[in-house]
Design brief:
The protein is of the alpha+beta class and 372 residues long. It folds into 2 domains: 5-95, NE0471 N-terminal domain-like (2-Layer Sandwich); 115-362, Double-stranded beta-helix. The chain has 8 helices and 22 strands. Strands 7, 8, 9, 10, 12, 20 and 22 form a 7-stranded mixed sheet that branches. A 4-stranded antiparallel sheet has the order 11-21-13-19. It is globular. It starts with a strand and ends with a helix. The relative contact order is 0.16.
């Protein structure tokens, strides 16, 4: 984390940002961060006051520096706030997730996928390392999960809370007659994200291999973050087109009809990659002027070329007991077709929200810091 400096000018506290910009810290912003027992419950770290009820003429009356980089700010209502440059820097939008591993885009290479043995996941250090790899790469393979129905939920609860969808809390991925989704056939599946027709989209998917004796049926993964990076670098106008155009995603069966609108590539408020929504089986482009549609289709075609490139796609076979957990808003998954006559390919899956692993990582990180 780059160094931010705090500067005192009269009764103002100013932040000198790493890029050189200077921001005067508002008295109310500082007052909201009073952490003494009168203002914040020490157990829950929740405020004991409503900051909207503070006096409109609240002001700073004194700023002292007792040492160790700490600043004590006193207000005209008698309260005081202790704050450091690190505290302020953590509040900047670009540093909101600075306590999490940096996301590293990847492509297909000879690097083995990040993996962990389920039998070791009861150890906090091992679990912390596994989550670090997952948050960085967007996926992890967990081996030696008992190849029994329902075990995927046990793994899911280790990292978050299972989320129920129209497919249930737990769903079986195998070839069935009269399937209500192409996932439940033996057909190949192109790279896609799951449930783009839901609001919000399930953040993380877990797929557990119960059995996989079939010829074919390889699992595939593509890093949408890397694909978006390449598209932005090589065809910036196409990239912008896919970020700015919302398409309709729709799923329907006899029990539900789900519709959501989202761009194929989603950016955060800083213009950085936030997610990808991609499912060629389910998207419907809005009615746009002819020329705009020409540009959109060309851009989508180029994105699809990247997503199906052997350079970006990782293929691997899930063995019995293997489980893959992946970020459904970053990674696209699929499979090669398989021969159902050579055995029954059976995976079980579920979803958890994206904040589950992040929360678990932070809790484990807090414990590791306290133990050192």
């Amino acid at each position: 984390m780059s160094e931010l400096r705090l500067i005192v000018r009269s009764n103002e506290l100013r932040a000198l940002l790493p890029g050189g910009e200077v921001i005067t810290l508002h008295p109310l912003w500082l007052r909201e961060r009073c952490r003494d027992a009168k203002n914040m419950d020490p157990k829950t770290e929740q405020r004991l006051f409503n900051p909207s009820n503070l006096a409109t003429d609240l002001s700073i009356v004194a700023i002292t520096t007792p040492g160790c980089g700490e600043f004590i700010v006193r207000f005209n209502d008698g309260a005081c706030c202790a704050i450091t440059a690190v505290d302020v820097q953590r509040e900047l939008p670009q540093y909101s997730d600075a306590d999490l591993p940096v996301k590293l885009p990847w492509r297909c290479d000879n690097t083995p996928p990040p993996s962990v043995d389920w039998r070791d996941c009861g150890d906090g250090v091992v679990q912390h390392q596994a989550l670090s790899a997952f948050l960085s790469c967007g996926y992890i393979v967990i081996s030696n999960v008992p190849a029994r129905r329902g075990c995927v939920l046990e793994v899911a609860r280790r990292f978050g809370i299972p989320r129920e969808t129209n497919f249930g809390v737990l769903f079986d991925v195998c070839s069935v007659p009269d399937a209500n989704d192409l996932a439940y056939t033996s057909l190949p599946l192109d790279p896609h994200t799951d449930n783009p027709y839901r609001t919000p989209v399930p953040g993380i998917q877990l797929l557990h291999c119960i059995s996989n004796p079939c010829a074919g049926g390889l699992s595939t993964l593509v890093d949408g973050m890397e694909a978006a990076r390449r598209l932005r670098e090589t065809a910036p106008e196409d990239f912008d087109m896919l970020c700015q155009t919302k398409v309709k995603f729709r799923y329907t069966d006899c029990d539900c009809e789900l519709v959501a609108h989202a761009p194929l590539i989603e950016l955060d408020r800083d213009g950085e990659f936030a997610g990808i929504h991609y499912s060629p089986r389910l998207d419907f482009v809005p009615l746009l002027p002819y020329e705009e549609l020409e540009r959109f289709y060309a851009a989508r075609r180029w994105l699809n070329t990247l997503l199906t490139s052997p350079e970006l796609e990782r293929r691997f076979r899930l063995a019995d007991g293997d489980l893959i957990m992946f970020d459904n808003r970053r990674l696209l998954h699929g499979r090669t077709g398989f021969e159902g006559s050579t055995g029954r390919r059976h995976l079980q899956g579920c979803y958890i929200d994206a904040d589950g692993p992040r929360s678990r990582y932070r809790v484990l990180n807090r414990g590791l810091i306290c133990s050192t």
